[in-house]
Amino acid sequence: MSGPQLADAAAVLALFALTAYALLGGADFGGGVWDLFASGPRALEQRAAIARAMGPVWEANHVWLIFLVVLLFTAFPPAFAALVIGLFLPLHLVLLGVVLRGASFVFRAHGALSGPRAPLQRTFGAAFGAASAVTPVLLGAALAAISSGGVRSPRGSLVAPPLASWLTPFAIATGLLTLALCAYLAAVYLTLETQGRLRADFRRKAISAGVALLVLAIADLPLMAAWAPRLYSRLASPSAAPLLAGGTALAVWSIAAVWRSRFEVGRVLSALSGIALLWGWGFAQWPFVIYPDFSIARSAAPNPALRDVFYAVGVGALLLGPSLYLLFRVFKGRNPAAGRPPRPRPHPRPAR
Amino acid sequence: MSNLMAARGQMAFTLGFHMIFAAFGVGFPLLQVVAEGIYLRTRQERYLALAKAWGKANAVLFGVGAVSGTALAFELGLLWPRFMRLAGSTIGIGFASEGFAFFVEAIFIGLYLYGWGRLSPLAHWLTGIPIAIAGAASAVLVVGVDAWMQHPNGVKALLSDPSAVAPGPMLFGNPHWPVMALHATVACYAATAFSLAAVYAWGMLRGRRDAMRRTALHLAMILGTAAAIAMPLTGDLSGKAVARFQPVKLAAMESQFRTQAGAPLRIGGWPEPQRRAVVGALEIPGGLSWLAYGSAGATVRGLSSVPTRLWPDLPLTHVSFQLMVGAGTALVLLALWYWVARRRGFTRPLLWGLVAGGPLAFLALETGWIVTEVGRQPWIIYGVQTTAAAVTPIGGLWAYFLGFVALYALLGATVVWLLRRVEHGRWAAQAA
Ligand code: HDD
Ligand code: HEM
Ligand code: HEM
Fold first, then answer.
1. What percent of chain B is modeled with pLDDT above 70?
2. Is B327:B381 a contact under the CB 8 Å cutoff?
3. Is this complex's ipTM strictly greater than 0.90?
4. Among the atoms of ligand 2, which is closest to the Cα of residue B316?
5. Which residue range(s) make up the domain with A89?
6. Residue A3: which pLDDT band, with cuts at 50, 70 and 90?
7. What does the pLDDT average to over A219-244?
């Protein structure tokens, strides 16, 4: 492949990583949100179901974020440098959220010796829930900032940004939209990991989060028109509008499926609607990494570097594919033990 | 606090913190796999109890390792954006390869921790093996990045025409990399093994001397001894590599002020940069020349060969180096003592020695990194870009630094508190 094509391919790869992180890691953030809002007579069971669903997979889901960051600084070094300066504060807050969420989740999962009601366990739980709720908002706002001129670097200079250029109404609304997406995905996925009343709880939560997602998506549009006119006009253009309409239709359809308790269908459709939203954004953002100062072509690393990225990713994918398949095969999918703790398969009697 | 100092402090602190968890992430899975494997062969329950207890401890350590590592991945850019703009696409290949090692590690950690009872015993054991391999691989690969910052192989070509060089060969063809990777990865095994030995020796001092704990100590000391003996040998190679690629750092490590034929090896002592002298060091004539270049008469370049603004912090570099070598020597002696004395039973002095071994091994690990990183100053990429030229233009960094210190202090305290509660199945009740 020649230069611009390689750079575009790297951008597509980054969008792929972002999508994977949103659909998998995002759902884990959503799990934290539902942990925070666990209520009613089955609050403890809801929390236990969330912990059981996230436990084996959250670390792997989390690596997509690292992969995305590494990809950005490898493939688009100047854009990355501008990004980390322009979003210095929010990215630090994201870090705080990531660290607190991950640490408090493992602390709670593996410190469960003193019982789920012990005060320290409750503190871990609160930290886990709060960090899970705040981080997606910040990530969504960051995404809005890079597509609405919130991160500038005139003539490639690296200077400190004006404070809070990432705090526009559009950015905040996009942050809330991201949060709703996470919560929606999590609740839909959780209907497949629970049974009986617990499943009914998550079905209700999924429907309310789905409606919130739709409302926020629609509310985001006028704000986008005001604060990110280029993004808006690209999205509204005849070539992108079908993607947007399709994504909305998918979201409505997935909510309907959950409503009718067709949870398997709901999961697929909800993931697809998330993909449509993100790729619609990606389509509108193209050809920029950061609008308007860093286009893909002008901020990409030289060709040999991009080629080496793809070699590394090719080899890595060979390792990763089967491993991920195994992980989700064992813990997800048609899981006979859904909703119940795993039945311990006894180790053969030890010979003393 | 100047912005540069705050950024360096934050980087050093967060790396030093991550390093503790990373070291366990390399060493622990190996011991786990060995214990579970022995259990599958012999069906002796104590090995299963060990594998399970270590798995629980490792789960907490791995979680904190993962989030502190993520913080680092962001911080490299947040604190040193100009460094990343210059070198991101070069070192990125190292991080990308390492990323896949993480991925594999994270996936199999999930399978391992939550797979008890869901997988057959053999399949469960097998999921431990990729964790052990990926842990070591991530250490080896990430050190490739640091090795390039120490000795930026091929940087001239990069600076003159970036579009003509492929970063992969530049990073992984670096002669400094294998040397550093070997020493630094073995150090992780040493640190894990001696820490575990310390935990069980402490238990024995408190009267918990059952077969399970003796076995645990024994397993840890087998790994610990092998690693301890490897440290001076691989460290010697590191020293020779430093002599070749970073003569000023070597001079700082040894407080060698003037260029000298037959330079002495200095043990201990405190350098006084103003007076260009060392006080209180024991000097072995010709020792440094011999260690660095294989001949007692060889010429060693002194610090005076470069202007003082290109000197690293001398007391910190020198004393850290002395501490690492001292701790490394002590660990070898400790290991020998263990094998000689254990037949005659565990005396209290031996057990106290083993308890000290854990902190000593981590002291060596941390001071070793301080030698490497502080000794590289004022450069972030040796000879190419200074740290001062790389730092972010954002102000008020001290506040972020303090925030991280507070956050990590909290995390560290919680980890210690939780680890003290890891139990060993039916052996738990036998605590004295
Ligand atoms: C358990 C830990 C441990 C122990 C016992 C030792 N070291 Fe070490 N050393 C490290 C852990 C370490 C390290 C933290 O892992 C470093 C930092 C960078 C690296 O590659 O390894 C290191 C770096 C390092 C360097 C600098 C490399 C550079 O700047 O690129 C030298 C010259 C030595 N070591 C030499 C030794 C010697 C002669 C030892 C003899 C006893 C020794 N080390 C014991
Ligand atoms: C591959 C791994 C590593 C990479 C890529 C790396 C990278 C860096 C970078 C970019 C800096 C800041 C710039 C500078 O001061 O030169 C730094 C400084 C530093 N790092 Fe590392 N580092 C690594 C491993 C470690 C580890 C494991 C430690 C453990 C203690 C460590 C300790 C330090 C210290 C003490 C400084 C501050 C030096 C000073 O300010 O004088 N590093 N490192
Ligand atoms: C010599 C220095 C280093 C070594 C030996 C090392 C090793 C490791 C290991 C073994 C892990 C697995 C997690 C665990 O077991 O706790 C880990 C995690 C991680 N490290 Fe480091 N690391 C080093 C420095 C760095 C640096 C400089 C960075 C950042 C740029 C970094 C980024 C990460 C990330 C992102 C993770 C999380 C991966 C996950 O989610 O599984 N590490 N590191």
1. 97
2. no
3. no
4. 41
5. 3-331
6. low
7. 86
Residue A294 forms part of a structural domain: yes
Assess A63–B contact: CB distance below 8 Å, yes or no.
Answer: yes
Distances, alpha carbon A268 to alpha carbons A12, A264, A320, B220, B273, in Å: 22, 7, 22, 48, 67
Considering only the C-alpha atoms of chain B, give the largest distance between any 2 of them, rounded to a whole number of Å. Answer: 68
Strands B299-300 and B260-261, by their bridges, are antiparallel
- H-run or E-run covering A275: helix A263-285
The domain total for chain A is 1
Q: Per-residue DSSP letters for B37-50?
A: HHHHHH--HHHHHH
Q: A272 and chain B: CB distance < 8 Å anywhere? A: no
Q: Tell me if B225 CB under 6 Å of ligand 1.
A: no
Rounded Cα–Cα distance for residues A208 and A258 (Å): 11
Q: How far is A57 from chain B (nearest CA, A)?
A: 6
Half-sphere exposure at residue A46, Cβ-oriented, CA atoms within 13 angstroms:
26
C-alpha B158/C-alpha B368 separation (Å) is: 29
Residue from A74, A108, A293, A349 to probe the interface with B (highest B Cβ count within 10 Å):
A74
The pTM assigned to this predicted structure is 0.90
A164 interface with B at CB cutoff 8 Å: no
Confidence of residue A344 (pLDDT cuts 50, 70, 90): very low
Mark which residues 130-149 of B lie under 8 Å from A by CB: 130
Residues B8-22: tens digit of each pLDDT: 999 999 999 999 999
Contacts 24+ apart (CB under 8 A), A155-163: A156/A78, A156/A293, A158/A81, A158/A82, A158/A85, A158/B81, A158/B82, A158/B85, A158/B393, A159/A85, A159/B393, A160/A85, A160/A88, A160/B393, A160/B394, A160/B395, A161/A85, A161/A86, A161/A88, A163/A89
Query: Is the residue at A344 inside a domain?
Result: no
Structure tokens at B41: 């062969």
Concatenating the DSSP letter of every residue in A28-51 gives HHHHHHHHHT--STTHHHHHHHHH
User: What is the rounded distance in angstroms from the CA atom of residue A57 to the CA atom of residue A28?
Assistant: 9
CA of A350 to the centre of ligand 3 (A): 37
Q: Work out whether the CA dihedral B141, B142, B146, B152 comes out positive or negative.
A: positive
If you take atom 5 of ligand 3, which residue's CA is the nearest one? Answer: B139
- Report the alpha-carbon distance of residue A53 to residue A57 in Å, rounded: 8
SS3 of B278, please?
A: strand
Nearest-CA residue for atom 27 of ligand 2: B19
The encoded tokens of residue A263 equal 């949870």
In a domain, A17, yes or no: yes
